[in-house]
Write a structure and sequence with these properties.
This protein is about 70% helix and about 0% strand. The longest helix has 17 residues.
């Protein structure tokens, strides 16, 4: 199922909050609001970041609470050299973030 940009932004904002979405895509709140309302298109790089966050959230939500997943996204992660998964995604290290999510899911 393909999720449209405004639905994607809404879903990620609902799960993580506007402030963290602003951080991961390096944009301000008004930009996020325009994307969420469908008033402007989400640039490709921002869309890629948001889709990865959404994918990881969906991967983890089967076994973890939203609160735990949010804490995982912002917490220091030894598998990511003590960067948080959101910092890793913001830096463009998408594969590393996904590997860390799978390790968290596996209990490692």
């Amino acid at each position: 199922m393909q999720v449209g940009d405004s639905d994607l932004v809404s879903a990620v904002v609902t799960k993580l909050g506007t402030r963290l979405v602003c951080f991961v895509v390096a944009k301000d709140k008004s930009t996020i609001t325009r994307w969420r309302n469908g008033q402007s298109a989400v640039p490709d790089e921002s869309s890629k970041r948001l889709r990865l966050v959404y994918q990881i959230f969906r991967l983890l939500e089967g076994s973890e609470s939203d609160h735990t997943i949010r804490a995982w996204f912002i917490g220091m992660n030894p598998q990511l050299d003590d960067d948080s998964p959101l910092e890793t995604i913001e830096a463009g290290r998408y594969k590393d973030a996904l590997i860390a999510a799978r390790a968290f899911l596996a209990g490692g």
